[in-house]
Amino acid sequence: MRISVYISFLLSAILCLSCASRIDPHKREQSLRHYQQGLELYRLGEVESAVWELEQAIQLAPRCAKAHDLLSRIYIRRGDIRGRWLATKRALRAVAIAPQHPEYRYNLAMVYRERGFGYNAKRELRKILKLDPDFWKAHYQLGLIEEEAGLKYESERRHREAVESLHRAAELAPQEYQVLYHLGLNLEELDKWEEAAKHLMSAVEVEPDRHEAHLLLAMAFHRLRRLEEAEGSYRAALERMIEQDRLPFESLDFLASPEELKEFHSTDRKDFLRRFWKQRDPTPTTPVNERQLEHYRRVVHANIHFAAPKLDIPGWKTKRGEFYIRYGEPTVKWRELGEVRMGVGLVPPRWIWSYSDGGQGVNLIFADTFLNGEYNFPFPDKSWGSDDFRNSPATLAQRMIQSLPESYQHDYGGELLEYASRTVEFRGSDGMTELEVVYGIPNPHLEFSRSGQMAQAMIERRAVLFDINWNEVARSDEKQIFDVPPTQAINPNRMVVEKADFQVLPGKYQLALNIRDQKSKKVGIVKTEVDVGRYDHQTLAISSLVLANKLYSDEGEDRFLRGDLVVVPRLGRLFQFSQPILVYYEIYNLTLDEWGGTWYQTEYTITRRPEKKGLLLRALSALASPFGSKKKWESVSSTTENRGASATEIGQLELDMSSAMLGEYLLTLTVTDMNSGQRAEREVEFGIVE
Fold first, then answer.
1. Is the pLDDT of residue 631 over 80?
2. What CATH architecture is 536-690?
3. What is the architecture of the domain spanning 1-113?
4. pTM
């Protein structure tokens, strides 16, 4: 390739000298001097002076091709109509003088591209490849032309043709960053993510300080579900950007509520952004925030696909870019070509995006009204009626934003795993509170396999506590195996129950619980707020009132052991009226008298709450048996006095609700320390069904 280019330059020089040899030797010397001076001035940025010198060179030697070529390069940079016309004129003249010179034809092709004459540019580039098949820049530019068409029309065929040209360019120039970058981009448009990642990693190696390849590499890793690598590449890209380029990635204008935006602009942005994204993290127990990665991906996609280069508008600032960042890929989309309609006039090209979620969808219309590449909501035309104005695309879009500012559906990589969970708390050590996160999975929801005489299932459980600012405080990750008799594996009335234990300071926390069945890949995630109580060593206090499935003594089982009792919490709060209700609790900091004894009073109050119109009551109202079928009572209480020899006491309660009406109830336990006069109270809700 280098030899052929060298020969081409040599031919050009010979042509220039030969044309100069037919003129006066003095003029020839002056022409060459003007050309050299013009070239030097051009390199120094003194463009107008360079133009004057080159025009003088051509006046003295009209067939000096390299002077025409350099003038063409200068004129095209002006960016105005006359500059483009002069650039075309000079480039054509250079090619006419030296038709076998690939660089002159390449410059002519670039002038055609700048003027929007893609067909002419492709013609010249193909002529170059006939002269020199290894001229990599021609392969590269052919690839870019096909890429632009592929992005504009979302044409898979054009992207395939782009890949073909860019592959050849990469073979000839394996260290050219732009070639590798655009090859990766077009491969991604064809969903060839592994191959794209390979070339983009090469681009990053060639120029590690440029952010563009890092962004595309992050997108490839994202689609390949290599999420930690995707996060690393996005971070690398953001670190290499100037502030203006980082803006769309950090902006919350398309995502946050007005209240959140107000807080964002009036508080520490770094802390707010961490909280904002953590609240939207679909898997807060993992190190990667998939929602934030998706936001980054949408911004990159918008900038690649929806920009208006003629107006210098980045893709994220266009209407299509905004709605893509808000809602992601439309459910359906199609393009309509422009046309002239009788009585209406020109109907510009349009894109129609339809978003739907199983129900009635919303169609968004974007029109290239001014034929400049910027698709916006269409302007009214003569055919519009009153209904058209009330339901214009802009109005529908605004209603959509007000109803749902942004949307994201996470792919968990498996079906939903349904399970129940609750938290109970007891006094811990050294001012800490012992928090138990208890969860139960119905056996049929797990996939069991035979293991000897038993059926076996395995889960991966991650439980994480965050403070109110979503900083991680405590974590408990564990793989757990459950062995049950084969007949129980499909019994819908059986469930496996386990827990995660934490020792934390009192206060408010965010709890995230992630459980994945290792065999079926089903996954279930719970996010909830937990208010952890304080249990010091002076104030009378009561632990959680634990509604229990089992209360029994068993020295061989310590997973749910409290003192000498095994306490297996009940995950649901509904009991059949014939079923006894077991309650476990602990009392702390009873005062010892001078003989080392405690004296305290316990009062149990059960109150029916018919006024509560929650989901439970609505469900109960549909039962066949009316509330009045049982003895009607609203509140009952029982008080006992107790003596002991320890500041900490364990309490058990068995409630017989067989004569109670169906409905929701509140159990209140009040403990009065008769030695100190202190009182403590704790409540728990439950329901009675048939």
1. no
2. Sandwich (2.60)
3. Alpha Horseshoe (1.25)
4. 0.84
